[in-house]
């Protein structure tokens, strides 16, 4: 036997792609596999044990169908594409999600499917309920609300509300986000599984939750109706109203459901009630309706029985898992609380450290400022000391100046006294000179008068002499008379000379006295000028030393007055002297 003959023949396979609500998977299936083999493989892959709610759905022409578990996959009306696409979805819905859904993966798949149906408007939901459901969806995705992390606009990329709700109100996305966030902030400390369960609890109360709708006609009248199949039973609706059924047949009140080609018959458990018949035009749809009726009825009966060992184990495990997770959450919450407290303590310590560092920095700055202030004060103290020394020196100089001024004032008083005395003497001398000059003027006037009289007498004598010479007296007599007249004339001339000499002598004496008086007047003028100059220097010194007390110069006005009087007297004497010289 050849080696090639020893090799086993490889089985034929085909490719399958299965899409769940949150993932896509590809499998290589054997040709002989039945629907159950592929379904079990998918359930094992995702870890699902509550398999009775789910199925593999595929698209056939204008409708859909569920993969039959007891029939080969390739023998069913599956698409001929490669790979063959199936959708792993919930085929049947529980009556109470909180009692029947045990596994977290089961809850999560139901949550994702119901959420998609609401957003696609396959399930009608009011705006208020849509906002509340959206808040639980956000809690399941993002966890607890943190205003420091969840800034405005963090929901901009999430689809949370049906388009019908968004179009119904004139509200911006930011306004919707604000409404959702207000509810979202109330769901603190709710885990993802709890948030998804709360979402399903609210969704299961919606009228269209878990209902599969089919178009039917009633009897021969061809009245168009809608048939709804769900976990509670069968419901008949008007085509334009999927919320309120016209008639309902609960599973507990149905004795039998049968169909023959296009006709369905619902037989109530109460034989007195009328049998309900309806028609469906498509055979494929009829088979689908029958599958859903059988599956929902089986689950309805199963819920009313004691749970199987498998379900009991699953529930026990789920209970233990929930208890364990609860303990873990409590531990995690305590650790989180302790971590938050530690972080707060750390932040407090860091804040305190920063505060102490700031205080230390401020203290250092204050110390530096105080040192600078101390240096500045020391410098100011040194400057003040120097200024004090300077002021003391200036005070000493001022004291010396004050003493000098006092001495000067005393000298000035003495000089004033001497000046007054000289002034009095000059005044008395001037008065005497004035009196003497007046007296001399009078004498000069008398002398002039006498001179004029003498001249008149001489003229008269000369006239008489001429008269005598013209007379007839003898020559001797005439000569003798001439001799006597010459003697008299000689006598008159000697008197005139003598008088002229006396006048000249008095004039010379007066000139000497006037010269002497002129010298005294010049000395007085020079003294007055020196006094004026000294007063001006003292006034300038007082203006320069304005900070010191100005010395008191007594009788300054009197001195000025005396100076004026001296000047007046001097001018008067000068005028007199000039007159006398003339």
Automatic annotation (TrEMBL):
Identify the Pfam families for this entry. Answer: ERM_C, ERM_helical, FERM_C, FERM_M, FERM_N
Q: Is the Ribosomal protein keyword given for this protein? A: no
Extent of the signal sequence: none
**Principal localization?**
membrane
Q: Which GO terms describe its cellular component?
A: cell projection; cytoplasm; nucleus; plasma membrane
GO MF term list: actin binding
Record carries keyword Transferase: no
- Coiled-coil spans are 315-468, 507-541
Its placement in the membrane is given as:
Peripheral membrane protein
- State where the protein is found: Cell membrane; Cell projection; Cytoplasm; Nucleus
SUPFAM superfamilies according to UniProt: Moesin tail domain, PH domain-like, Second domain of FERM, Ubiquitin-like
| InterPro entries xref list | Band_41_domain, ERM, ERM_C_dom, ERM_FERM_C, ERM_helical, Ez/rad/moesin-like, FERM/acyl-CoA-bd_prot_sf, FERM_2
Could you say which residues bind a 1,2-diacyl-sn-glycero-3-phospho-(1D-myo-inositol) here? 68-71, 287
Q: Which residues form the FERM domain?
A: 14-304
Q: Which PANTHER family does the record associate with it?
A: MERLIN/MOESIN/EZRIN/RADIXIN
Return the protein name: Merlin
